[in-house]
Amino acid sequence: MKLTLFFSLLLLTFTAQANGQRWQGEAATGALLLVDGQGQIQPATLLDTDARITVSGPVAKVTLTQRFHNPSQQFREGRYLFPLPENAAVDGMVLTIGDRRIVGRIDRKAEAEKTYRQARASGKKASLVSQQRPNLFTTAVANIAPGETVQVELHYQQTLNVDGHRFQLRLPLTLTPRFTPPTEAPHTLDSLLRNTVAAPGGTADAGTASVHIDLDAGARLATLGSPSHAIHYQRHGRRYTITPKAGAIAMDRDLLLNWELEDTGEPLVTRFHEEIDGEHYALLMVVPPKTGQVTALPRETLFIIDSSGSMGGAPMRQAKASLHLALQRLKPGDRFNITDFDSQHTLLFETPVTVSDNSRQQAQDFVDGLQASGGTHMLPALSATLSQPASDGYLRQVIFITDGAVGNESGIFRALHQQLGEARLFTVGIGSAPNSHFMTRAAQFGRGSFTYINDQNQVQQGMDTLFRRLESPLMRNLQVQLPDGIVAERWPQKLPDLYAGEPLLVAMKLSAPPQQITVSGYSTQHWQQPVTLPTNNNHPGTASLWARRKIADLMDRITLGAAETDIAPLITDVALRHQLVSRYTSFIAVEETVSRPANEPLLHDTVRNQAPHGTQHTAAWPGTATPAPLLWRLAGVLLMVCLLLWLRQRRLNHGAA
User: Fold this and answer.
1) CA–CA dist 58, 532 (Å, integer)
2) Where is each VIT domain found (predicted)?
3) What is the edge-to-edge ordering of all strands in the sheet holding 279-287?
């Protein structure tokens, strides 16, 4: 019996350690759960989402409307965790109850939360929009009356993904669960996660989304389509109206819309200007000629592939296919290595080796044997890869294939800053809802780019596009030149290398509106492009995008070691000035009329997102999560057996006495 008790306690200890590997706040399935103060689960309410998007060149203006309905007989509070594009600038919020519209105002986060708590406690309608990560937000709506529908309307701006003449709009509708190693500090979403993970499994519907897109690309289109959904479009001159063919769509995958401009043989030049209170802002995009000079330098390519549990199913198949194609593109004389990671990491070779038939075959066999399991311990794998000795005379390029499902982004960014050196980092996003914020920022830290592969059919095209870019560095030492006397605060401050078909996109705050801006650089010869700024037109959203980029740069300073107490006031000032949600500011809307009588209890809802399409996540537990629930049950059974044996032994001893 002592042995049984020992194993029970050992199992409990292991289970407790397993629970230390926290899944942070991004639930994996789709259901609106109603939980009372005693933790009892109530029937789910419904959630509907409506997105109206206006696209002008490389800029999209989005109005996202979410409706919360309370079919119960009690007052409720709803909480919903939702993703936005990593470069979104949230700049408006409206709360609608019946015919009453309450326009939200931006405030310091602590003050907004205090106002919300007071309104909730006093029985007033209120809504709070807060940022959890740069591409992850929460909406809280208090005091939804029985049978009532409350509508929360968000406004945000974003720049689009651009590859040469190809543009992509992505509307995030779900998100991939994020794994945080047990050594990392808990995230503020842990309390929300406890509510969602504690709920039973099931297939409760998180609602659907209706989407309407007005597109003005600024030029005639060669192609228009969506790799994620069947769409219907109507053409009005050079403008297009796009809707999903199925009408409302399930929120289990991101909506993608791709289009390509007709190639006239001339450089594509797009520029926007906005004036606010006498201050001038500009957004500049220049796409250079498509032909580039193929580098004469041999390349050293280091592949990192994520085989953790969150990559199970379609993502793993896509990742392996991507890596196989990448290996085929390597040229004799180049050098390479592969790092695979989940809870542990493995290097194919001790150090990078020269490409040969033998080494390529070893690599292909290595990739064939990969299986998705375990946790996403990315940082040790990244450090091991970057610490490999560099080969003199080789251009080092790191290709990182992952869904980015991690919560410890800051530590990874610090490692990149400290260890990347002169290498370039190119991230490849896998699956239907990758962590695009992490992969975009990682690529920016590494002066590379982010490639998104949505499904198996896109692997060939995505990897071909990436390798054409890697094999064709077009321009270095890029400069943006302004007329004398005009000063600009621009983001990014350090311009990246320019590859064939890759645009230069710069956001600027100008001391005065210049008539002309010159972009220049050097490849095999000097290149420059003059750009005229249309100051007679105002393009709303340009200033918000500049402010968002400045906030992102300030956040990077904290990541790299600057004191948060020094940086937080700077971020707050920019966010308040430009009416933006940030880590330190939130939108708050409160109705002054009391809705809930003081003697009525307030129950709480938690909205859970649908699992990304193609993943193997089931019920409430993501694929990469530890087997803690099962272990707890086994431990409980063993303890019950121990207790029964102890009682039996006690009766026998008592009878013998």
Assistant:
1) 17
2) 30-158
3) 268-276, 279-287, 504-510, 488-491
CB 129 within 8 A of CB 586: yes
Question: Is residue 612 reached through a cis peptide bond, with omega within 30 degrees of 0 on the bond before it?
Answer: no
What are the Cα distances from residue 165, in Å, to 71, 487, 497? 48, 30, 18
State the pairing for strand pair 424-430/335-341. unpaired
Say which residues have a Cβ less than 8 Å from residue 434's Cβ, sequence separation at least 6: 176, 402, 403, 404, 405, 452
- Residue 355 token pair: 């490409």
Residue type, 184: E
The neighbouring-strand residues paired with 339 are 304, 347
Buried b (16+ CB within 10 A) or exposed e, 474-495: bbeebebebeeeeebebbeeeb
pTM of the predicted protein model: 0.61
Dihedral sign, Cα of residue 350, residue 351, residue 352, residue 353: negative
Burial of residue 393 (number of CB atoms within 10 Å: 0-12, 13-18, 19+)? exposed
**Half-sphere exposure for 98 (CA within 13 Å, toward CB):** 9
> What is the helix (H) or strand (E) element at residue 418, kind and residue range?
helix 409-419
Token pair for residue 253? 């995958």
Of 158, 160, 171, 175, which Cα lies nearest the Cα of 88?
158
Amino acid 621: pLDDT: 34
Q: What is the pLDDT of residue 478?
A: 79
Element at 232 (helix H, strand E)? strand 231-236
Strands 504-510 and 279-287, sheet pairing? antiparallel
Per the document, the length of the chain is 657
pLDDT at 39: 46
Could you state, in chain order, the average pLDDT of each consecutive group of 10 residues for the chain (657 residues)? Answer: 38 33 29 42 59 88 84 76 71 81 89 92 87 72 81 84 84 62 46 37 58 87 93 90 88 89 70 87 76 63 91 86 89 92 94 94 95 89 91 86 78 85 86 77 82 76 79 73 91 74 82 87 74 76 85 84 92 92 88 70 59 52 42 56 65 61
- Note whether 561 and 534 are within 8 A (CB): no
Q: How far apart are CA 445 and CA 438, in angstroms?
A: 10
CA-to-CA separations, 147 to 102, 127, 491, 529, 598, in angstroms, rounded: 20, 18, 48, 60, 19
Predicted confidence at residue 244, as pLDDT, reads: 92
The token pair at 438 is 């992490």
